[in-house]
Write a structure and sequence with these properties.
The chain has helices at about 5-30, 35-55, 65-85. The protein is mostly helical and about 90 residues long.
Length: about 90
């Protein structure tokens, strides 16, 4: 298992890249409504806050399994957000 610092970096990079992709889409499609894209950004920020809070939880006994679950959740929620970006 990678370090906690690496997990936090992964969360930051994945969700940051998704937000950046939404901004690029908005820049390229200035004539379209941005309500859906703004909702994706808001959801990405919520996911970020939720995952970082789980990483910082100090009351976990089996840290290895806990961090693996967070990593899996990051993958699942990241893919869902990417699918939403692709549907814009």
């Amino acid at each position: 298992m990678a370090s906690v610092r690496d997990l936090k970096k992964d969360i930051n990079f994945v969700l940051g890249d998704i937000i950046e992709a939404v901004y690029v889409w908005e820049y390229q499609n200035t004539d379209k409504d941005t309500k859906k894209s703004e909702a994706i950004i808001d959801e990405a920020i919520e996911v970020f806050d939720e995952l970082i809070a789980k990483v910082n939880d100090r009351k976990i006994e089996d840290k290895g399994a806990h961090f693996k679950a967070i990593n899996k959740e990051l993958e699942e929620k990241g893919k869902a957000l990417i699918d939403k970006v692709n549907k814009l």
